[in-house]
Fold this sequence. Notes:
Strand order of the largest sheet: 1-10-9-8-2-3-4
Low-confidence stretches: 3-11
Shape: elongated
CATH superfamily of the largest domain: TPP-binding domain
Structural class: alpha/beta
CATH architecture of the largest domain: 3-Layer(aba) Sandwich
Distance between the termini: 23 Å
Bound molecules: nicotinamide-adenine-dinucleotide
Number of helices: 10
Order of helices and strands: EHEHHHHEHEEEHEHEHEEH
Largest sheet: 7 strands, parallel
Strand content: 15-25%
Amino acid sequence: xxxxxxxGGNPSLGLxxxxxxxxxxxxxxxxAGISTDSGIPDFRGPNGVWTKNPEAEKLATLSAYxxxxxxxxxxxxxxxxxPTWTARPNVSHLAxxxxxxxxxxxxxxTQNIDGLHQAAGTxxxxxxxxxxTMHQVMCMSCDRRSPMAETLDRVxxxxxxxxxxxxxxxxxxxxxxxxQDLVVEDLRRATRAATECDLMLAIGSSxxxxxxxxxxxxxxxxxxxxxxxxxxxxxxxxxxxAVVRVxxxxxxxxxxx
Length: 257
Ligand code: NAD
């Protein structure tokens, strides 16, 4: 493992750049840290939503959301003010879109639900949104999907916990909550990508949420090189070829070139 900070505190991206330049196919795994420069806080970083307010985690727990109308009302209220609605892609999202354009990107697996990789211009067919998207809502009874914007208009108009218009069921953002299974096809695609790449580039994730984080050892077991870009330590630093602990907004554009 080569850490950018191990060299007398002088961050070096050199090894990571060489590994990326030498790789034929790259799988990128992104987490909330890539979007903090766009004004969307992460959950577990020093300024994370859950670091500051551990109670907020309940809003993302499926059993609590389904059982308690007050949790749902709070979830919809907090969603109205989400910074996601005005966020723009930042230099790192744009750099990864360039990597996709170069033909080297096998798949971009994201834990993020903000849609900023698509907004940056990465081909949606190359993206797996492992934890779903905030831009849609789904009915927990009939599975009907509809745009988030429509439901937020209903909340603004006074429906505190708007029910499904088709069946009256509970609506929830089309994201994967704690206690909710991932979409089988999404996990299958992401796992296959991890087994097929020459290099996995994990950016802005504490790599503590499974099964997403489990893609990292899968890539490693299949002989891919591993580069981690994250400000804090992750659980997989010890198996990485390079750990780049400099701000993502500097590291990712420098890596991609
Ligand atoms: P996390 O909050 O657990 O970890 C983010 C990591 O990024 C932290 O270790 C933090 O130190 C690092 N980081 C933040 N900004 C950075 C920067 N500018 N430079 C370098 N490092 C930086 O995030 P996670 O592992 O992705 O898991 C959180 C879960 O919450 C995900 O499953 C995701 O679905 C969801 N989430 C998504 C968004 C989003 O869509 N933007 C935002 C918050 C949470």
